[in-house]
Amino acid sequence: MSESLIYHEEPVEWRVSRGLVAYPDAVAQMEARAKAIATGEAGEMIWLLEHPPLYSAGTSARLTDLVDPNRFDVFESGRGGQYTYHGPGQRVAYVMLDLRKRSRDVGLFVRTLEQWIIETLAEFDVTAERRCGRVGVWVEHSDGREEKIAAIGIRLKKWVSFHGIAINVSPDISHFEGIVPCGISEHGVTSLSALGKNIEMAQLDDKLRQNFERLFGPIPSA
Fold first, then answer.
1. N or C end of the chain: which has fewer CB within 10 A?
2. Taking a C-beta distance cutoff of 8 angstroms, is the pair 153, 84 a contact?
3. pLDDT band (50, 70, 90) for residue 185
4. Which of 12, 30, 96, 182 is catalytic?
């Protein structure tokens, strides 16, 4: 990627949680880590996990997009964006990076996150693309339909990022029906499994790790 100005030479901690992590606990840990990164008390970290079924509201969320408020717990997230769904079968990657040491270019940061997803999905023969005016990563079917396969929602505080990306591996797609995902009603949502890709989470994690290191910088050896 010609614009990979996000690269940083110091290792980034790579953490993978097994089981389902409660959303409030994850947010509290993220916020604490981001604060510690900002003060120099901790290093950068990528945290891979899954959540129980929930809806998360970004700072631009419209109440009218919460179609079924009683279906799952709803949390105010503080990240950018609108409503999104998290749940089992979806790989969430929380990205806690210090952009003071990389590039204070938010647009470049988001594009690099998109590229990370695009290049990772390509490892599984899935062609994923950006769409102008629509944050996230999309796939186009042979009939021209476009569906979202990955979402991006970040927050910056003192130029340290938190929140991150969510890739649909094998979630229950019907769970997205309780919201208008990211405020976009004219396009649907898909997953790797819906595209016929039966991929274990560990396989995706391995490719995420490899592509992250190339785009963002080194991580410690396993």
1. C
2. yes
3. low
4. 182
